[in-house]
Amino acid sequence: MSVISPTMRRRFRPDARIATIAEAILIPVGALIVAALVFSVFLLVLGKDPVRFFGLVWTGGAASAFSLQNTLQRAAPLILTGLAFAVPARIGLTLLGAEGALVLGGFTAAVTAIPMIQAGWSPWIGLPLVAGIAMSVGGVWVGLAGWLRHYRGVNETISSLLLTYIAIAIMNFLVEGVFRDPGSTNKASTMPLSADWRIGDIPGTSVHWGLVAGLILAALLWILMERTTFGFSARIAGGNLRAAQAQGLPVGRLAIASCAIAGACAGLAGFFEVVAVHGQANASLAAKYGFTGILVAFLARQNTLAVVPVACLFGALAASGGLVQRRMDMPDATMLVLQGIIFVTLLVSETFYGRLPFFRTSQSGDRT
Amino acid sequence: MSDAVFSVLMAMIGGAIRVSTPFLFVALGETLTEKSGRINLGLEGNLVLGAMVAYATSYSTGNPWLGVLAAGAAGMVLSAGHGWICKLPKVNDIAVGIAFMNLGTGLAFFFGKPFIQPTAPRLDAVALGNWSATPQVRQALLVNPLFFVGLALAVILWWMLKSTRWGLTIRMTGDSAASARAMGVSVDRVRLLTTASGGFLAGIGGAFLSLYYPGSWNESLSSGQGLMAVALVIFARWNPLRCVWAALLFGATGALGPALQSIGISQGYYFFNAAPYILTLVIMIISARSEAASRAAPSELSIVK
Lengths: 368, 305
Fold this sequence. Notes:
The complex is a heterodimer. Chain A is an all-alpha fold. Chain A has helices at about 5-10, 15-45, 50-65, 65-90, 100-120, 125-150, 155-175, 210-225, 230-240, 240-245, 250-280, 290-300, 305-330, 335-350. Chain B is mostly helical. Chain A: Pfam families: BPD_transp_2.
């Protein structure tokens, strides 16, 4: 009976470790290429030119300084929601709660900032406080799914998605009711934040500070998951729950804590959407960043550092969406189809881990 | 006052029948799939894709029943993909479900754009309330034939699972894949067939959404009904007959907001929108650790492990 999984054992042998890393990069990249081919066939069947499509994605997502900044702007919330899926996934939990935590976090940020602005607080004190509140609300919301999972045996995937729907309904209810700004006639919104409470862009760019927050959190969470006893225990529990329990690890607390971290990341994404992008809370907070984050985390193989480049990739897809729509006369759902195809090929590619002869090392035979 | 209560009550009964039908179809499909030991979280995608295909077919052929059939076929194709991928080793069926939820919704939105504006022929209702002079009763008892198809399917499915050879094979596959293999049953094939058939039923549930109630195609047509139906199956303990009651209960909760609005109480309309989700969550909390539910659960199912 050993707690150390074959993957971990391979880490101690340098050549095997390189093979593991190569496998973890090449298989997802292969899946992306297959997805691009499948999508090209889809476009050809519809009589559209795939070369033109991918050319436009390049133009709209990366070719100029403007499009690069557009990409990074959209990548910022995706990094945070990608982290929100990746961290609990390491402990074996499949959570779809990021969208709800983002919406609730953004909403509470908007409504808690208003009285502080009215009381004349300095944004230097107020904004960190509001960010903390948004993160706590998100953390409690998703943490609830973890708690229900551990103490009540409720499936966390379904409960967290239900919590997302409930969060969106609560926000709509309050935005349409108590917290509605009487001035918002077109679309019910909360009171707009004053200009000095809006977080500006990183100097010299048009990218907001949420990107920096995402980068810092990705690095911190990587240290937490890979270099601390917390992360080690969480990974053991994710690999073999029974073994972790037999070792006396606090499985329940680990699960709830990782859910709370996930919710806090998503809540922070909501905070930045409000203070840096929208300036108020309304229905546009539910922009599906939480759901795209799931795909981001899957493609990054739940590695918090890999979440960053993958989030940029999907940010580029989102940024070039408008260009593709206009130039090729295609609906905005085009990117949804592409994302769906990427998701499916990615999951099919899971079956190849440890089975490709190229990556086999002498010990990899005992991987199940 | 009692007039208002009567109106709300009738609106809720009528609403329960109307709203419950898609729940019923998805829940029956999911029951069939889960009985064979596999979970398909992607039926939300089937529901949306089915709604779009049904509306488009009804619009171009003029026959809504052809639309129902096409929706079923689209759902079946989508779920056959799910079933095929899940049989590969080391693939997580819950994740595949999430992927197909996205793919189905994406395809529906992509091909559905031209059909948001036009009006397609819808399914007709059967008027069962002509004996009554009260308009609320008449309104409530306008029932769509698909509801009765769903009821009949529930009985057939219950009988099929309980007393036929096919039913026995499906239950055995769901309870112990090893013994099914020992009996010479191809576990993968059984699961592929139940997943595909379950997808067919979920597609029909989608057809009901676009062709009867709410009765048009748009991108916010379904908001988690497909997913709630999965939770509903756990609550119904994998019993098709219980699915009927559970679906009606969900339907009544979903009808609460519109029913109150019909007598002028629109305060908290958005809050009542959350009622079905809250009910689902509460039901899941109650039924998760119940003895009866764990006895009825197919033991190969990843979601109850």
